[in-house]
């Protein structure tokens, strides 16, 4: 079972809703990722890409948020894969 959600929750502990998880914390998350977490990251990226396609053209804010999430998870995937 993937621990990805718990790892992300741990990394965001103490941050306000407006604060982003710092890069150093993403590195810590990546170091704790195993095969199950890497698979979970890949699934999340695919899900976000599918969601992005369904967003209305006029909803640029939502498109931006999804693209940021795709970017963050893609970086996390790269970092987690480098650790293997």
From TrEMBL:
Which domain of life does the protein's organism represent?
Bacteria
Q: What is this protein called?
A: Uncharacterized protein
Q: Which organism is it from?
A: Pseudomonas veronii
């Amino acid at each position: 079972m993937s621990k990805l959600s718990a790892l992300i929750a741990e990394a965001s502990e103490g941050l306000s809703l407006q604060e982003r998880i710092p890069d150093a914390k993403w590195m810590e998350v990546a170091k704790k990722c195993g095969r199950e977490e890497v698979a979970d990251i890949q699934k999340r990226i695919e899900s976000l890409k599918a969601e992005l396609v369904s967003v209305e053209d006029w909803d640029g804010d939502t498109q931006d948020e999804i693209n940021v999430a795709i970017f963050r998870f893609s970086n996390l995937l790269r970092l987690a894969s480098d650790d293997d």
